[in-house]
Amino acid sequence: MGTVHARSLDPMPMHGPELGVQADDIEAPEIEQEPKQEVLENKNVVVQRVHIDGLGRTKEDLLTYEIAEVFRARNLIDVMRKSHEARQKLLRLGIFRKVEVVIDTSRGEDALPNGLDVTFEVTELRRMTGSYNTMVGNNEGSMVMGLKLPNVFGRAEKLTFQFSYGTKETSYGLSFFKPQPGNFERNISVNIYKVTGQFPWSSLRETDRGVSAELGFPVWKTSQTLKWEGVWRELGCLARTASFAVRGESGHSLKSSLSHAMVIDTRNSSILPRKGGLLKIHQELAGFTGGDASFLKEDFEIQLNKSLFWDSVLSASLWGGLLLPIGDKPTSIADRFYLGGPTSIRGFSMYSMGPQSEGDYLGGEAYWAGGLHLYTPLPFRPGRGGFGDLFRTHFFLNAGNLCNLNYGEGPRAHLQKLAECIRWSYGLGIVLRLGNIARLELNYCIPMGVQSGDRICDGVQFGAGIRFL
Protein backbone atom coordinates (compact mmCIF):
# COMPACT_ATOMS: atom_id res chain seq x y z
CA MET A 1 0.00 0.00 0.00
CA GLY A 2 1.35 3.45 -0.88
CA THR A 3 1.82 6.43 1.34
CA VAL A 4 -1.32 8.30 2.40
CA HIS A 5 -1.46 11.98 3.45
CA ALA A 6 -4.29 11.96 6.00
CA ARG A 7 -5.39 15.59 5.91
CA SER A 8 -9.07 14.77 5.96
CA LEU A 9 -11.37 11.99 7.09
CA ASP A 10 -12.49 11.10 3.58
CA PRO A 11 -12.20 7.36 2.79
CA MET A 12 -8.91 6.52 1.12
CA PRO A 13 -9.08 5.46 -2.54
CA MET A 14 -8.60 1.72 -2.87
CA HIS A 15 -5.83 1.26 -5.40
CA GLY A 16 -3.99 -2.06 -5.55
CA PRO A 17 -3.96 -4.79 -2.89
CA GLU A 18 -5.33 -4.29 0.60
CA LEU A 19 -3.31 -4.68 3.77
CA GLY A 20 -2.30 -8.26 4.40
CA VAL A 21 -4.08 -9.53 1.29
CA GLN A 22 -2.26 -10.64 -1.84
CA ALA A 23 -3.69 -9.93 -5.25
CA ASP A 24 -3.71 -13.65 -6.11
CA ASP A 25 -6.07 -14.34 -3.19
CA ILE A 26 -8.80 -12.14 -4.66
CA GLU A 27 -11.15 -13.45 -7.30
CA ALA A 28 -12.79 -10.26 -8.40
CA PRO A 29 -15.56 -11.69 -10.62
CA GLU A 30 -16.98 -13.79 -7.77
CA ILE A 31 -16.89 -11.17 -4.98
CA GLU A 32 -19.60 -8.62 -4.52
CA GLN A 33 -18.16 -5.12 -4.25
CA GLU A 34 -18.56 -3.53 -0.80
CA PRO A 35 -18.63 0.20 -0.11
CA LYS A 36 -15.03 1.41 0.17
CA GLN A 37 -15.42 2.81 3.66
CA GLU A 38 -16.95 -0.44 4.92
CA VAL A 39 -13.99 -2.45 3.57
CA LEU A 40 -11.58 -0.08 5.28
CA GLU A 41 -13.43 -0.19 8.58
CA ASN A 42 -13.49 -4.00 8.61
CA LYS A 43 -9.72 -4.29 8.05
CA ASN A 44 -7.85 -4.92 11.30
CA VAL A 45 -4.54 -3.06 11.46
CA VAL A 46 -1.85 -2.44 14.05
CA VAL A 47 -0.05 0.87 14.47
CA GLN A 48 3.52 -0.30 15.11
CA ARG A 49 5.39 3.00 15.17
CA VAL A 50 4.65 6.71 15.38
CA HIS A 51 7.36 9.11 14.23
CA ILE A 52 7.57 12.87 14.73
CA ASP A 53 9.86 14.54 12.22
CA GLY A 54 11.03 18.13 12.40
CA LEU A 55 11.49 18.58 16.16
CA GLY A 56 14.05 21.12 17.27
CA ARG A 57 13.67 22.57 20.76
CA THR A 58 10.43 20.70 21.61
CA LYS A 59 10.77 17.92 24.19
CA GLU A 60 9.48 14.57 22.94
CA ASP A 61 7.86 13.64 26.26
CA LEU A 62 5.41 16.54 25.81
CA LEU A 63 4.11 15.07 22.55
CA THR A 64 3.79 11.50 23.82
CA TYR A 65 0.51 12.41 25.53
CA GLU A 66 -0.93 14.03 22.39
CA ILE A 67 -0.31 11.05 20.07
CA ALA A 68 -1.01 8.18 22.48
CA GLU A 69 -4.51 7.50 21.11
CA VAL A 70 -3.11 6.70 17.65
CA PHE A 71 -1.69 3.40 18.98
CA ARG A 72 -5.19 2.33 20.07
CA ALA A 73 -6.64 2.45 16.55
CA ARG A 74 -7.76 -0.94 15.21
CA ASN A 75 -8.79 -0.25 11.61
CA LEU A 76 -7.69 2.09 8.86
CA ILE A 77 -10.51 4.59 9.22
CA ASP A 78 -9.86 4.67 12.96
CA VAL A 79 -6.16 5.30 12.34
CA MET A 80 -7.01 8.24 10.09
CA ARG A 81 -9.52 9.64 12.57
CA LYS A 82 -7.21 9.39 15.59
CA SER A 83 -4.29 10.75 13.57
CA HIS A 84 -6.41 13.75 12.60
CA GLU A 85 -7.40 14.28 16.25
CA ALA A 86 -3.73 14.05 17.31
CA ARG A 87 -2.84 16.61 14.63
CA GLN A 88 -5.43 19.02 16.05
CA LYS A 89 -3.99 18.52 19.55
CA LEU A 90 -0.48 19.27 18.31
CA LEU A 91 -1.63 22.45 16.58
CA ARG A 92 -3.53 23.50 19.70
CA LEU A 93 -0.26 23.58 21.65
CA GLY A 94 0.63 26.75 19.74
CA ILE A 95 4.22 25.67 19.06
CA PHE A 96 3.94 24.39 15.48
CA ARG A 97 3.32 26.40 12.34
CA LYS A 98 2.37 23.32 10.33
CA VAL A 99 1.58 19.67 11.08
CA GLU A 100 1.05 17.03 8.39
CA VAL A 101 0.26 13.34 8.83
CA VAL A 102 1.66 10.53 6.69
CA ILE A 103 0.35 6.95 7.04
CA ASP A 104 2.34 4.13 5.44
CA THR A 105 2.77 0.37 5.68
CA SER A 106 5.33 -0.80 8.22
CA ARG A 107 8.75 -1.71 6.93
CA GLY A 108 11.66 -3.63 8.40
CA GLU A 109 12.27 -7.07 9.84
CA ASP A 110 9.58 -6.80 12.53
CA ALA A 111 6.93 -5.41 10.19
CA LEU A 112 3.55 -7.13 10.44
CA PRO A 113 1.43 -7.81 7.33
CA ASN A 114 -1.19 -5.41 8.69
CA GLY A 115 1.23 -3.07 10.43
CA LEU A 116 1.20 0.70 9.91
CA ASP A 117 3.65 3.49 10.60
CA VAL A 118 2.26 6.98 11.30
CA THR A 119 4.54 9.99 10.80
CA PHE A 120 3.79 13.53 11.94
CA GLU A 121 5.81 16.05 9.94
CA VAL A 122 5.96 19.24 12.02
CA THR A 123 7.35 22.72 11.45
CA GLU A 124 8.10 24.59 14.66
CA LEU A 125 7.37 28.26 15.11
CA ARG A 126 10.30 30.63 15.23
CA ARG A 127 11.77 31.40 18.63
CA MET A 128 10.29 34.89 18.47
CA THR A 129 7.23 36.09 16.57
CA GLY A 130 5.65 39.52 16.30
CA SER A 131 2.11 40.59 15.53
CA TYR A 132 0.21 43.73 14.70
CA ASN A 133 -3.58 43.87 14.50
CA THR A 134 -6.67 45.76 15.49
CA MET A 135 -9.23 44.68 18.06
CA VAL A 136 -12.81 45.61 18.77
CA GLY A 137 -13.97 45.82 22.37
CA ASN A 138 -17.26 46.99 23.84
CA ASN A 139 -17.93 49.91 21.51
CA GLU A 140 -14.26 50.80 21.25
CA GLY A 141 -11.38 49.92 18.95
CA SER A 142 -7.69 49.46 19.63
CA MET A 143 -4.39 48.81 17.90
CA VAL A 144 -2.47 45.87 19.35
CA MET A 145 1.21 45.05 18.93
CA GLY A 146 2.65 41.91 20.42
CA LEU A 147 5.90 40.01 20.82
CA LYS A 148 5.68 36.30 21.55
CA LEU A 149 8.26 33.68 22.53
CA PRO A 150 6.53 30.33 21.98
CA ASN A 151 7.81 27.07 23.43
CA VAL A 152 10.32 28.85 25.66
CA PHE A 153 11.53 25.76 27.54
CA GLY A 154 10.38 23.12 25.06
CA ARG A 155 7.10 22.12 26.71
CA ALA A 156 4.60 24.57 25.15
CA GLU A 157 5.35 27.44 27.53
CA LYS A 158 4.68 30.89 26.12
CA LEU A 159 6.03 34.31 27.06
CA THR A 160 4.08 37.24 25.61
CA PHE A 161 4.50 41.00 25.67
CA GLN A 162 1.56 43.06 24.38
CA PHE A 163 0.95 46.75 23.90
CA SER A 164 -2.53 48.09 23.12
CA TYR A 165 -3.55 51.63 22.26
CA GLY A 166 -7.28 52.26 22.03
CA THR A 167 -9.90 54.96 21.86
CA LYS A 168 -10.61 54.69 25.61
CA GLU A 169 -7.88 52.43 26.96
CA THR A 170 -4.11 52.00 26.72
CA SER A 171 -2.32 49.01 28.20
CA TYR A 172 0.81 46.92 28.16
CA GLY A 173 1.66 43.70 29.90
CA LEU A 174 3.91 40.67 30.16
CA SER A 175 2.44 37.19 30.60
CA PHE A 176 3.80 33.66 31.04
CA PHE A 177 1.64 30.63 30.18
CA LYS A 178 2.35 26.97 30.86
CA PRO A 179 0.00 24.03 30.18
CA GLN A 180 0.14 20.66 31.90
CA PRO A 181 1.62 18.02 29.56
CA GLY A 182 -1.18 15.83 28.26
CA ASN A 183 -3.92 18.15 29.49
CA PHE A 184 -3.78 21.50 27.69
CA GLU A 185 -6.95 22.76 29.42
CA ARG A 186 -5.16 22.51 32.75
CA ASN A 187 -2.72 25.40 32.78
CA ILE A 188 -1.23 28.23 34.80
CA SER A 189 -0.46 31.80 33.79
CA VAL A 190 1.19 34.79 35.46
CA ASN A 191 0.60 38.37 34.28
CA ILE A 192 2.14 41.77 35.00
CA TYR A 193 0.35 44.74 33.48
CA LYS A 194 -0.48 48.43 33.44
CA VAL A 195 -3.82 49.70 32.12
CA THR A 196 -4.99 53.29 31.76
CA GLY A 197 -8.65 53.83 30.89
CA GLN A 198 -10.93 56.80 30.35
CA PHE A 199 -14.59 56.62 31.31
CA PRO A 200 -16.30 59.79 30.06
CA TRP A 201 -19.74 58.74 31.35
CA SER A 202 -18.25 59.03 34.86
CA SER A 203 -15.71 61.82 34.16
CA LEU A 204 -13.19 59.31 35.49
CA ARG A 205 -9.66 58.26 34.60
CA GLU A 206 -8.26 55.05 36.08
CA THR A 207 -4.74 53.64 36.01
CA ASP A 208 -4.20 50.07 37.21
CA ARG A 209 -0.81 48.51 37.87
CA GLY A 210 -1.16 44.89 38.78
CA VAL A 211 0.01 41.31 38.92
CA SER A 212 -2.14 38.20 38.71
CA ALA A 213 -1.81 34.42 38.77
CA GLU A 214 -4.39 32.07 37.21
CA LEU A 215 -5.06 28.35 37.27
CA GLY A 216 -7.34 26.96 34.57
CA PHE A 217 -8.76 23.44 34.61
CA PRO A 218 -11.76 21.50 33.28
CA VAL A 219 -14.36 19.82 35.48
CA TRP A 220 -16.86 17.62 33.62
CA LYS A 221 -18.22 19.88 30.85
CA THR A 222 -17.17 23.11 32.54
CA SER A 223 -14.11 25.30 32.28
CA GLN A 224 -12.95 26.57 35.67
CA THR A 225 -10.55 29.39 36.52
CA LEU A 226 -9.07 30.33 39.90
CA LYS A 227 -7.30 33.68 40.06
CA TRP A 228 -5.47 35.90 42.50
CA GLU A 229 -4.97 39.55 41.56
CA GLY A 230 -3.21 42.41 43.27
CA VAL A 231 -3.84 45.87 41.77
CA TRP A 232 -2.61 49.33 42.68
CA ARG A 233 -5.39 51.61 41.44
CA GLU A 234 -5.13 55.31 40.81
CA LEU A 235 -8.39 57.17 40.18
CA GLY A 236 -8.58 60.73 38.92
CA CYS A 237 -10.95 63.18 37.29
CA LEU A 238 -11.20 63.21 33.52
CA ALA A 239 -12.54 66.77 33.37
CA ARG A 240 -12.70 69.86 35.54
CA THR A 241 -16.46 69.55 35.56
CA ALA A 242 -16.33 66.21 37.40
CA SER A 243 -18.85 65.93 40.21
CA PHE A 244 -17.91 66.05 43.88
CA ALA A 245 -18.89 62.36 44.17
CA VAL A 246 -16.27 61.43 41.57
CA ARG A 247 -13.70 63.77 43.11
CA GLY A 248 -14.29 62.03 46.43
CA GLU A 249 -13.44 58.70 44.84
CA SER A 250 -10.15 60.02 43.46
CA GLY A 251 -6.87 58.81 44.90
CA HIS A 252 -4.88 55.61 45.34
CA SER A 253 -6.09 52.25 46.58
CA LEU A 254 -4.86 48.67 46.68
CA LYS A 255 -7.09 45.74 45.79
CA SER A 256 -6.15 42.16 46.48
CA SER A 257 -8.78 39.65 45.43
CA LEU A 258 -9.47 35.98 44.87
CA SER A 259 -11.88 35.06 42.10
CA HIS A 260 -13.44 31.98 40.54
CA ALA A 261 -15.12 31.63 37.17
CA MET A 262 -17.08 28.71 35.72
CA VAL A 263 -18.10 28.53 32.06
CA ILE A 264 -20.23 26.04 30.12
CA ASP A 265 -20.36 26.96 26.43
CA THR A 266 -22.11 24.73 23.88
CA ARG A 267 -22.67 27.44 21.26
CA ASN A 268 -21.47 26.86 17.71
CA SER A 269 -20.15 30.44 17.62
CA SER A 270 -19.46 33.05 20.28
CA ILE A 271 -20.15 36.00 17.96
CA LEU A 272 -23.45 35.14 16.27
CA PRO A 273 -24.53 31.65 17.39
CA ARG A 274 -27.26 29.62 15.73
CA LYS A 275 -27.63 26.99 18.43
CA GLY A 276 -26.39 26.04 21.88
CA GLY A 277 -26.16 27.83 25.18
CA LEU A 278 -23.81 29.63 27.55
CA LEU A 279 -23.63 29.70 31.33
CA LYS A 280 -21.00 31.87 32.99
CA ILE A 281 -20.73 32.41 36.75
CA HIS A 282 -18.10 34.62 38.38
CA GLN A 283 -17.33 35.34 42.02
CA GLU A 284 -14.74 37.73 43.44
CA LEU A 285 -13.73 38.18 47.08
CA ALA A 286 -11.58 41.23 47.86
CA GLY A 287 -9.95 42.10 51.17
CA PHE A 288 -9.37 38.56 52.41
CA THR A 289 -5.75 38.66 51.24
CA GLY A 290 -5.14 42.31 52.15
CA GLY A 291 -5.66 45.63 50.41
CA ASP A 292 -8.02 48.56 50.90
CA ALA A 293 -11.04 47.17 49.05
CA SER A 294 -13.31 44.68 50.83
CA PHE A 295 -16.30 43.22 49.02
CA LEU A 296 -17.95 40.11 47.61
CA LYS A 297 -18.99 40.38 43.97
CA GLU A 298 -21.21 37.88 42.14
CA ASP A 299 -22.36 38.01 38.54
CA PHE A 300 -23.69 35.59 35.93
CA GLU A 301 -24.57 35.36 32.26
CA ILE A 302 -27.00 32.97 30.54
CA GLN A 303 -27.67 32.69 26.82
CA LEU A 304 -29.84 30.24 24.84
CA ASN A 305 -30.04 30.01 21.04
CA LYS A 306 -32.52 28.06 18.91
CA SER A 307 -32.64 27.69 15.13
CA LEU A 308 -36.11 28.23 13.63
CA PHE A 309 -37.69 28.04 10.19
CA TRP A 310 -36.48 30.12 7.21
CA ASP A 311 -32.90 30.14 8.55
CA SER A 312 -33.88 32.36 11.48
CA VAL A 313 -32.53 32.16 15.04
CA LEU A 314 -34.24 32.99 18.33
CA SER A 315 -31.88 34.06 21.11
CA ALA A 316 -32.58 34.83 24.77
CA SER A 317 -30.07 36.13 27.30
CA LEU A 318 -30.02 37.15 30.97
CA TRP A 319 -27.32 38.95 32.95
CA GLY A 320 -27.24 39.76 36.65
CA GLY A 321 -24.89 40.80 39.41
CA LEU A 322 -24.61 41.78 43.07
CA LEU A 323 -21.86 43.67 44.92
CA LEU A 324 -21.79 43.28 48.71
CA PRO A 325 -19.49 45.59 50.73
CA ILE A 326 -17.65 43.94 53.61
CA GLY A 327 -17.22 46.11 56.67
CA ASP A 328 -18.10 49.78 57.00
CA LYS A 329 -16.25 51.05 53.94
CA PRO A 330 -18.46 51.75 50.90
CA THR A 331 -17.76 50.16 47.53
CA SER A 332 -15.57 51.90 44.97
CA ILE A 333 -16.79 53.42 41.70
CA ALA A 334 -14.21 51.15 39.99
CA ASP A 335 -15.87 47.97 41.27
CA ARG A 336 -19.55 48.71 40.64
CA PHE A 337 -21.67 47.55 37.72
CA TYR A 338 -22.62 49.71 34.73
CA LEU A 339 -25.47 49.27 32.30
CA GLY A 340 -26.79 50.81 29.12
CA GLY A 341 -25.53 51.26 25.58
CA PRO A 342 -25.49 49.43 22.25
CA THR A 343 -23.99 46.27 23.76
CA SER A 344 -26.50 45.94 26.63
CA ILE A 345 -29.75 47.94 26.95
CA ARG A 346 -29.95 49.40 23.45
CA GLY A 347 -31.48 52.83 23.03
CA PHE A 348 -29.58 54.21 26.02
CA SER A 349 -26.18 55.90 25.93
CA MET A 350 -23.10 53.95 26.93
CA TYR A 351 -23.24 53.08 30.66
CA SER A 352 -25.56 56.05 31.22
CA MET A 353 -28.32 54.81 33.48
CA GLY A 354 -28.74 54.29 37.19
CA PRO A 355 -27.24 56.21 40.11
CA GLN A 356 -25.60 59.48 39.10
CA SER A 357 -24.38 62.76 40.51
CA GLU A 358 -24.30 66.02 38.57
CA GLY A 359 -24.37 64.13 35.28
CA ASP A 360 -21.64 61.62 36.22
CA TYR A 361 -22.76 57.99 36.43
CA LEU A 362 -21.53 56.23 39.56
CA GLY A 363 -22.54 52.63 38.82
CA GLY A 364 -24.73 50.37 40.91
CA GLU A 365 -24.33 47.53 43.37
CA ALA A 366 -27.03 45.35 41.84
CA TYR A 367 -28.34 44.91 38.32
CA TRP A 368 -30.12 42.62 35.91
CA ALA A 369 -30.61 42.75 32.17
CA GLY A 370 -32.50 40.52 29.76
CA GLY A 371 -32.76 40.35 26.00
CA LEU A 372 -34.89 38.58 23.41
CA HIS A 373 -33.63 38.59 19.82
CA LEU A 374 -34.77 37.28 16.45
CA TYR A 375 -32.13 37.05 13.73
CA THR A 376 -33.27 36.45 10.15
CA PRO A 377 -31.57 36.56 6.75
CA LEU A 378 -31.66 39.82 4.82
CA PRO A 379 -34.84 40.36 2.78
CA PHE A 380 -34.60 38.70 -0.63
CA ARG A 381 -31.27 37.10 0.42
CA PRO A 382 -28.80 39.30 -1.52
CA GLY A 383 -25.33 37.75 -1.79
CA ARG A 384 -26.57 34.37 -0.62
CA GLY A 385 -23.78 31.83 -0.28
CA GLY A 386 -21.18 34.59 -0.05
CA PHE A 387 -20.74 38.03 1.48
CA GLY A 388 -24.45 38.42 2.12
CA ASP A 389 -24.41 35.58 4.66
CA LEU A 390 -22.37 37.76 7.02
CA PHE A 391 -25.38 40.06 7.48
CA ARG A 392 -28.51 39.33 9.50
CA THR A 393 -31.69 41.28 10.17
CA HIS A 394 -32.13 41.86 13.89
CA PHE A 395 -35.31 42.37 15.95
CA PHE A 396 -34.79 42.89 19.68
CA LEU A 397 -36.44 43.56 23.02
CA ASN A 398 -34.17 44.55 25.95
CA ALA A 399 -34.96 45.31 29.57
CA GLY A 400 -33.04 45.81 32.80
CA ASN A 401 -32.37 47.82 35.92
CA LEU A 402 -29.37 49.09 37.90
CA CYS A 403 -29.54 50.38 41.46
CA ASN A 404 -28.02 50.43 44.93
CA LEU A 405 -29.48 48.31 47.71
CA ASN A 406 -29.98 48.84 51.44
CA TYR A 407 -28.43 45.71 52.86
CA GLY A 408 -30.29 46.09 56.13
CA GLU A 409 -33.44 45.07 54.26
CA GLY A 410 -34.37 41.52 53.31
CA PRO A 411 -34.14 39.73 49.94
CA ARG A 412 -37.77 40.50 49.13
CA ALA A 413 -37.13 44.25 49.42
CA HIS A 414 -34.08 43.86 47.17
CA LEU A 415 -36.08 42.08 44.48
CA GLN A 416 -38.82 44.69 44.73
CA LYS A 417 -36.31 47.49 44.18
CA LEU A 418 -34.78 45.72 41.16
CA ALA A 419 -38.29 45.32 39.72
CA GLU A 420 -39.08 49.03 40.06
CA CYS A 421 -38.44 51.59 37.34
CA ILE A 422 -37.43 49.03 34.71
CA ARG A 423 -35.78 50.49 31.63
CA TRP A 424 -36.59 48.72 28.38
CA SER A 425 -36.30 49.22 24.66
CA TYR A 426 -37.16 47.58 21.37
CA GLY A 427 -36.22 48.01 17.75
CA LEU A 428 -34.69 46.47 14.68
CA GLY A 429 -31.50 46.70 12.68
CA ILE A 430 -28.75 44.93 10.79
CA VAL A 431 -25.94 42.81 12.25
CA LEU A 432 -22.61 42.20 10.52
CA ARG A 433 -20.42 39.32 11.70
CA LEU A 434 -16.68 40.00 11.40
CA GLY A 435 -15.54 36.38 11.34
CA ASN A 436 -15.01 35.07 14.87
CA ILE A 437 -13.52 38.39 16.01
CA ALA A 438 -16.43 40.75 16.64
CA ARG A 439 -19.76 41.93 15.36
CA LEU A 440 -21.22 45.28 14.32
CA GLU A 441 -24.82 46.41 14.83
CA LEU A 442 -26.73 49.30 13.31
CA ASN A 443 -30.12 49.52 15.01
CA TYR A 444 -33.12 51.79 15.16
CA CYS A 445 -33.98 51.91 18.87
CA ILE A 446 -37.03 53.04 20.77
CA PRO A 447 -36.18 53.44 24.49
CA MET A 448 -38.96 53.07 27.04
CA GLY A 449 -39.16 53.31 30.83
CA VAL A 450 -36.66 56.17 30.84
CA GLN A 451 -35.92 57.46 34.33
CA SER A 452 -34.78 60.90 35.43
CA GLY A 453 -31.06 61.31 34.73
CA ASP A 454 -30.84 58.58 32.09
CA ARG A 455 -29.26 59.47 28.77
CA ILE A 456 -30.97 57.98 25.77
CA CYS A 457 -30.13 57.39 22.13
CA ASP A 458 -33.53 57.58 20.49
CA GLY A 459 -33.26 56.46 16.86
CA VAL A 460 -30.21 55.08 15.06
CA GLN A 461 -27.49 53.59 17.26
CA PHE A 462 -24.24 51.91 16.25
CA GLY A 463 -22.56 49.21 18.31
CA ALA A 464 -19.36 47.18 17.99
CA GLY A 465 -17.98 44.53 20.27
CA ILE A 466 -17.68 40.90 21.28
CA ARG A 467 -20.14 40.55 24.16
CA PHE A 468 -23.73 41.65 23.50
CA LEU A 469 -26.85 41.23 25.57
UniProtKB/TrEMBL annotation:
PROSITE patterns: POTRA. GO terms for biological process: mitochondrial respiratory chain complex assembly; protein insertion into mitochondrial outer membrane. Belongs to the SAM50/omp85 family. The keyword Protein biosynthesis does not apply. Transmembrane segments: none annotated. InterPro entries: Bac_surfAg_D15, D15-like, POTRA. Its main location: mitochondrion. It is a multi-pass membrane protein. One of its GO terms (cellular component) is mitochondrial outer membrane. PANTHER family: SORTING AND ASSEMBLY MACHINERY COMPONENT 50 HOMOLOG, SORTING AND ASSEMBLY MACHINERY SAMM50 PROTEIN FAMILY MEMBER. It comes from the Eukaryota. It is found in: Mitochondrion outer membrane. Pfam families: Omp85. Residues 45-125 form the POTRA domain. This is Sorting and assembly machinery component 50 homolog A. It comes from Parambassis ranga.
